[in-house]
Write a structure and sequence with these properties.
Layout: E1 3-4, H1 6-18, E2 27-34, E3 40-47, E4 55-59, E5 62-66, H2 68-74, E6 78-82, E7 89-93, E8 99-100, E9 106-108
Length: 109
């Protein structure tokens, strides 16, 4: 399961609306791909379709879709949003990551 903080929820809904998606019917697709300075990096995008092999979660009124491969890396992750002076963007608090890079966009197990 992936959880969504209140600040991330508000930002997701705003961005989805701005990009023509509907937060009530469309999805936030979260994934993991090879790359980044720590070996694996996060992917975050909006989607209006779900594959048969995808896992679907809903937390804090946000519908999250994760492909089967990425799910293993993301179990227990909390999606947060930081809008402060030192950084602006989504942050993945992943309990499975043993090492993360300084920017927080990549990790290793």
């Amino acid at each position: 399961m992936i959880q969504v903080s209140e600040t991330a929820k508000q930002r997701v809904i705003t961005l989805m609306t701005e990009e023509g998606y509907n937060a009530d019917t469309d999805y936030v697709r979260v994934g993991v791909k090879s790359g980044g300075c720590s070996g694996l990096s996060y992917e975050l995008k909006f989607d209006d379709a779900i594959a048969e092999s995808d896992k679907l979660f809903e937390d804090n009124a946000v519908r999250i879709v994760v492909d089967k491969k990425s799910f293993l890396y993301l179990v227990g992750t909390v999606l947060e949003y930081s809008g402060g002076l030192n950084g602006k963007g989504f942050v993945f608090n992943n309990p499975n990551a043993q090492r993360t890079c300084g920017c927080g966009e990549s990790f290793s197990l």
